[in-house]
Amino acid sequence: xxxxxxxxxxxxxxxxxxxxxxxxxxxxxxxxxxxxxxxxxxxxxxxxxxxxxxxxxxxxxxxxxxxxxxxxxxxxxxxxxxxxxxxxxxxxxxxxxxxxxxxxxxxxxxxxxxxxxxxxxxxxxxxxxxxxxxxxxxxxxxxxxxxxxxxxxxxxxxxxxxxxxxxxxxxxxxxxxxxxxxxxxxxxxxxxxxxxxxxxxxxxxxxxxxxxxxxxxxxxxxxxxxxxxxxxxxxxxxxxxxxxxxxxxxxxxxxxxx
Length: 258
Ligand code: CAA
Description:
Blueprint: E1 7-12, E2 15-20, H1 31-45, E3 52-56, E4 61-63, H2 68-71, H3 76-82, H4 86-90, E5 98-102, E6 105-107, H5 109-116, E7 119-123, E8 127-129, H6 143-151, H7 153-162, E9 166-167, H8 168-173, E10 179-181, H9 186-198, H10 202-215, H11 220-233, H12 238-248
Parallel strand pairs: 2-3, 3-5, 4-6, 5-7, 6-8, 7-10
Antiparallel strand pairs: 1-2, 8-9
The protein binds acetoacetyl-coenzyme A.
């Protein structure tokens, strides 16, 4: 496992908790942190003993965005050659479900990272925004696209053009997050949700996640065709036989991930 301690990993049963660990910089996402995060996620994704991930920051900040100091003097060519934002894409290829457990600031690239996860559970004091306009730029890691799909054009425009920050309650109202819980409970609740998901049929989880994400990227007919193939494909798994037999036999299924 890559280790600069920019991302801390704790494993409990089938859940891996990944904690962004740059508290001195509000978890600003510099290149080293992003590479460590993506390398770690990819390694954990290959581990069959795990079923679900929780990604979190600190109580003060999930992440305050890309590291402004690291890129302040970069030219366009520097940004292109280093593919500064490239590592953000790697999270979208992770097969297992990822829950973002967000407390405090969730800004810019931090919000874009949270939106690249599959669910967001927010502490009631969490604050969501895309403040890039204050820096003379705009979101560059999916902010204009994923945010607009999540909250709609009206709110996305206010956030991107005028630094509107959403409270956790507003984020829930506009569909950006799944759930808001009291500040002192957000980690416990995120881990409990992850444990519940991690106990489910692994192949169906993987394919269900992929299919829902495809809905944001493809035309309806193509998405439905892909969904149908995935549904039929799952009938070659032992877990489909086990799940359907367990239903008829009125017992709990014993998933094998095969
Ligand atoms: N990059 C680099 N350093 C950052 C940072 C960032 N995004 N956010 C915070 N920090 C650093 C601060 O510079 C400060 O460091 P020093 O102690 O060395 O000065 C430390 O973290 C603590 O921050 P503050 O003193 O500012 O803490 P605060 O409580 O007063 O304010 C905050 C917190 C509102 C989050 C404020 O830090 C802030 O506005 N941060 C910047 C947010 C931002 O603009 N994010 C967008 C980045 S660009 C981007 O993300 C592009 C993209 O789409 C990929």
